[in-house]
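Appendix B, Record 12. Input sequence as logged:
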Amino acid sequence: MNSKINTGLLAYGMSGKVFHAPFVSTHPGFNLKGIVERNRKIAQDDYPEIISYNSVEELLNDDIDLVIINTPNNTHYEYAKQALKAGKHILVEKPFTATTDQAKELFALAKSVGKKALVYQNRRYDSGFNAVKKVIESGKLGKLVEVHFRYDRYRNEISPKTFKEELVEATGLQYDLGPHLLDQAIALFGKPEKFNKILSKNRVNTKVDDYFAIQLTYPNELNVFLTASMLVADIQSAFVVNGMMGSFSKNHADVQEAQLLKGMKPTEEGYGIENPDDAGKLTLVTEDGGRTTEFIPSEKGDYPGIFEAVYQNIVNEKPYPITEEDILTQLEILQS
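Logged structural output:
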């Protein structure tokens, strides 16, 4: 491999433009060599030195070390298999695959060809999630009783992105937002002892679920509830944690996506820093039964951190934080 990891993207829609190219292009360990653009050729407007490939096959036949698979959900498995067989490392957008069997096959294939099969779970690097993680790990809440993670929006219309609305593999809101919420819960609490899931379809003419609620049961009577809806006009708190000694709540105020959409680079001053007004609220019970309230500012959002983890895993064999077991647990729940 070269001194830098030659990297190619399989698409340059929102995911490629916002969540991948800015980080690959600014990390000193990567070289953004090219992007597949089957129709509109626009990537060179942002990155003049890159190659615009006409097809996935053209990219795979070039001197690419790492392929970022950021295509529609139902294509991940086949493109991942193609890339591994071509001798490339892969970083695959969520969901990794539609089923655990597909995931196990890809993990085994990666090992057989000596390449890395990594999954992109950027929401572990959200400012709000890391604020929650810090409060839980502090022990201030005592024994945890109930945890709620939500990811809500209001979009009553049917999306023009047909791959999100048609009955194909890995479709519906649970496969769109479920991997984010499940990964956050698994990162904090591990594999649940059991789970229950509710899906529903509410928008006129929808073919796929636009609401889900998943209950995860953990040891010591801990219940974790994961909810997402496309029909919430008044957005709720994204994180609520209740313990024997207090509660913590936090809205979803990570600014990274909005900053990137406006063209901000992850290397610029102010990147990832939340508005102070969006601090989380920590309420603790005092010895005399009273209450104290403290506002906890968020950690800086750190999407660059996942690319550093990819680099360290490929180059220095350092463990990647999103494990194969994490992904298999996530998919077991999604496919059920």
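Residues 154 and 230 are 5 Å apart (CA to CA).
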